[in-house]
Design brief:
Elements: H1 2-12, H2 20-45, E1 61-66, E2 69-70, E3 75-81, E4 90-94, E5 99-100, E6 102-106, E7 110-114, E8 121-123, E9 125-129, E10 132-135, E11 140-142, E12 146-152, E13 170-171, E14 173-178, E15 184-188, E16 193-198, E17 203-208, E18 217-218, E19 224-228, E20 236-240, E21 247-251, E22 261-266, E23 272-277, E24 282-286, E25 293-297, E26 310-313, E27 318-323, E28 328-332, E29 339-344, E30 353-354, E31 364-369, E32 375-379, E33 384-388, E34 394-399, E35 420-425, E36 431-435, E37 439-440, E38 442-447
Parallel strand pairs: 2-11
Antiparallel strand pairs: 1-3, 3-7, 4-5, 4-9, 6-7, 8-11, 9-10, 12-38, 13-37, 14-15, 15-16, 16-17, 18-19, 19-20, 20-21, 22-23, 23-24, 24-25, 26-27, 27-28, 28-29, 30-34, 31-32, 32-33, 33-34, 35-36, 36-38
Pfam families: TIG
Organism: Thermophagus xiamenensis
InterPro entries: 6-blade_b-propeller_TolB-like (IPR011042), Ig-like_fold (IPR013783), Ig_E-set (IPR014756), IPT_dom (IPR002909)
Length: 448
């Protein structure tokens, strides 16, 4: 800084500021330049931009796109002809899953858009103009950016403290829900608390005490969360964003279910709340008539019934659930009439590979399913999160160091977890993970 002031002083004489006359000349020159530029722009704007319609009698032609690689929200340009200028009639689709780009503008020969989230690797690019679909010969290389970070909680301190994210302390986190607005609600199984984590507001508050529960059911819009009591009489509490997440007793009991209930889930209609207990009884409760409870199946595979979690897959239109003691994930039809081994069943371990022929699980707990039908399973004692790819049926390691307990943020395959249990996907497709044993920590696996 001293050098730059001294240089200015040498240029302008004894002071570090320009003489008044020189300053006036500079100001005048600047104003003249702005005026000329304005006139030039005004002349160009005298005529409104022309609107060109797509001509269906002529082919849509593709020339090039740029850049050839990038990640989510990368600015993407397509060059060609006969696109028209109506944004509503143009689409740019990436990958075989046809992930749709956000179109910013079209001028008949150029499409301006933002790259959507998609699978990593080389993906096809298709352009759709009205009824015409054209594919590029070359592919776009999509780069997935991932990182594990700590949101709140401190490993080794279970003193149960509200406050800022850095001040808050947790105990035995067995339930987690990523809710609307980027916030999080967690359940402390053995402390009996439900707590609210306002990420943007940097605060943690206790919402409910003396209620022992685990993984909740969350509505698709993430504005309502239902926690089912683990033990009889299985009270259900509703937390609604409209009521500032204030807990409200929804039902006082679920008759006919005597075993422990570790989780609950909705199907795509959200007309029924589904659950199963540690005796292997699978049932549902009608949301508009909570006194109507149906037993759908009994004696479904359950192991010893502890730590088992349930998740619905819109893609498969069925449920998947973990069996903690037999190291497996099962598929379960919505009516409970059909079930089958889906992942694991190959003994306790951390091997990856085909979901039933080679993959092993290590005391699985929480699980979730994304919109594409990929299943994500938490290995509690394995200290990892694995992904079962819908297309390939291959189970791969997503995050964590197998059989290594610890607390380390960073790249997913270098990050360390300490007995993770619950997992929930947030609005942006990231994973919120809670660690269950002793002091609780809430982690985020950020995809993109």
């Amino acid at each position: 800084m001293k050098t730059s002031v001294l240089n200015r002083a040498k240029r302008w004489g004894d002071t570090a500021y320009p003489p008044i006359e020189s300053f006036k000349k500079m100001l005048l020159l600047t104003l003249v330049s702005i005026f000329i530029a304005f006139q030039f722009i005004s002349c160009d704007d005298d005529e409104p931009p022309s609107i060109v319609d797509h001509d269906p009698s002529l082919p849509v032609k593709l020339e090039s796109f740029m850049p050839d690689s990038g990640g989510i929200r990368t600015k993407f340009i397509v060059k060609g002809s006969n696109f028209g200028s109506d944004i509503s009639k143009v689409k740019v689709l990436f990958s075989e899953d046809e992930k749709e780009a956000t179109i910013l503008g079209v001028d008949n020969e150029t499409i301006y858009c933002l790259v959507p989230k998609q699978a990593g690797g080389d993906n096809v690019v298709n352009v759709v103009v009205e009824d015409d679909t054209i594919a590029f010969d070359n592919t776009f290389h999509y780069i997935v950016r991932e990182n594990v970070s700590t949101i709140t909680g401190v490993r080794g301190d279970n003193s149960l403290v509200d406050g800022s994210l850095s001040e808050a302390r947790f105990n035995y986190l067995y339930g987690v829900a990523a809710v609307a607005g980027g916030d999080i609600i967690v359940a402390e199984m053995y402390a009996g608390n439900i707590r609210y984590i306002a990420v943007e507001d940097n605060r943690v508050t206790t919402l409910l005490t003396n209620f022992f529960t685990a993984m909740p059911a969350v509505t698709k819009d993430r504005t309502k969360v239902f926690f089912v009591g683990k033990q009889r009489p299985h009270k259900i509490y509703l937390l609604d964003q409209e009521n500032l997440w204030e807990p409200e007793l929804f039902v006082s009991s679920i008759p006919g279910f005597n075993g422990d209930i570790w989780s609950a889930a909705f199907d795509d209609t959200e007309e029924w709340l589904y659950f199963f207990d540690s005796t292997g009884k699978f049932g549902r409760l009608e949301m508009n008539n909570p006194s109507n409870v149906e037993v759908l199946a009994e004696n479904i595979p359950r192991g010893n019934g502890t730590h088992n979690c349930l998740a619905y897959s819109p893609y498969h239109d069925c449920f998947f659930y973990t069996i903690y003691t037999t190291q497996a994930v099962y598929r379960l039809s919505k009516d409970g009439s059909e079930y089958e081994l889906w992942i694991g069943g190959n003994g306790q371990g951390v091997s990856t590979g085909h979901r039933t022929e080679a993959a092993q699980l290590y005391y699985p707990g929480g699980l979730t399913v994304d919109e594409d039908g990929n299943i994500y399973v938490v290995n509690i004692d394995g200290n990892t999160i694995v992904k079962c790819d819908r297309k390939s049926d291959f189970v791969s390691l997503l995050a964590g160091v197998p059989l290594t307990m610890g607390h380390k943020d960073g790249p997913p395959l270098e990050a360390q977890f300490y007995l993770p249990f619950g997992i929930s996907i947030d609005e942006d497709g990231n994973f919120i993970i809670c660690e269950c044993w002793g002091s609780g920590v809430v982690r985020k696996l950020a995809i993109e």
